[in-house]
Amino acid sequence: MTAEIEKLQKMIDESDNIVFFGGAGVSTESGIPDFRSVDGLYNQKYDYPPETIISHSFYMAKPEEFFRFYKDKMLCLDAMPNTAHNFLAKLEEKGKLKAVVTQNIDGLHQKAGNKTVYELHGSVLRNYCQKCHKFYDAWYIKNSEGIPYCECGGKIKPDVVLYEEGLDNDIVSGAIRAISDCDMLIIGGTSLVVYPAAGLIDYYRGNKLVLVNKSVTPMDSRANLFVQGMIGEIFGQLKV
User: Fold this and answer.
1) What is the pLDDT of residues 69-103, one digit of tens each?
2) Which CATH number applies to 33-75+124-160?
């Protein structure tokens, strides 16, 4: 166990109001691709750039092309929680972790057992008819042909925040409240370059800010502790 991980363990042991704020790096170890890594979605070739395809204007203008990409690359429904997800679920079960704030849309934190999860960018597991608001699960979307339609004839939209769309105010408020009140904030698996989500770090007022990431971030100098590496491997060395 390195000195950094020993220090992280000590900080966790001495805290009883922890919030975890995570990004795509938490789920890549479950086989879900991120957007900015070497093998991420930004570096694969499609008729349009991924950031264009998953925008609100593209969804409205070319829904069939949107869903072709979405079903092929963003619905990883067989993925299972990894070591990081399971550690955080145990930390909540013990009463030390009060909330997870995530940029991910895969639902793996809940699958691992976390109850209080603020999904900033929504979830692929929730889908609603834009006409009658009927709920549909992700498998319905995955198995649909072309554009998924409701039995009422309305188009079904995934409950995910596309580019050009705003975040849900209630979810953001909950995340801000949790981060403002916590005595320890662990940030992991995120480059901290996507706003407004990355700006949530500004609401933390304590002195136990920990960054866990495989690469450096613009916020490293603000951290009380920086642990570099794969988040699953690091959390796997910790005890709850």
Assistant:
1) 999 889 999 999 999 999 999 999 999 999 999 99
2) 3.30.1600.10
